[in-house]
Amino acid sequence: MIQTDDVRLSTGTHLHLRGELLTPLCEGALWWPDRATLIVSDLHFEKGSAFARRGQMLPPYDTAATLTVVEALVARHRPDTVISLGDSFHDGKAESRLAPGDRDRIRAMTAALDWVWVEGNHDPDPPESLGGRTARTLRLGPLVFRHEPSGEPGEVSGHLHPVLRLANRHRTLRRRCFATDGCRLVMPALGAFTGGLNVLDKAFVPAFPDGGMMLFAMGQDRVVLVRREALVPDGRRAATGRRRLATPRLAQSGAASSKKGSDYG
Fold first, then answer.
1. Which of 32, 87, 140, 142 can pair with 120 through a Cys bridge, CB separation 3.0 to 4.6 Å?
2. What is this structure's pTM?
């Protein structure tokens, strides 16, 4: 399947962005220890109910499931600040569809922390009634946080929902991932019902104008660095089946696996 030349395991993966040490987390969040800041992206609260209104019935538990992940991250890292990098809500009416318990859970977190809702294309006006503060773009030290990538140095963005794909004639492995060139970073989507876009898609070219890209894939209990040369685009299989799986845990983890063309933004 996938051999260790393609995937390098690490129990504690870190990366540098314009001199700042950041830790990508296997849940899909980013931890900035020097600023005690937790960054999440593309939560897409109430995506399930939005689809239900259009006749596509999905289990109505995506918001609660996503909140459980965020609450666990907050409890573990005890941040002073949480930055939600846009598309926190799936549409402008998502707040009205929130279950009362989910609304209370959001308010409890925004009341306890400096919570920043960065505006996204799905939620250009995040609801004020849920607490926190809003920003179109947020600048902290050498880093800049916005929803849609522009290629600016120091940028941390979301929107593209990056996933990577490894494949041969026997097996396909698809995982959400962090994409970075050491100067910019695109976050994976954390929402329970969010799809993904293959990092080899041309949509990533403007995000990394210098041409380089390192990929950190999300496993069940760790983040792994994957060689870009090992990746394949959607719909293509490798020519041989001689590769071997590096770790069963990585193969069994519950990362997103939607097809290209899904609603990634």
1. 87
2. 0.82
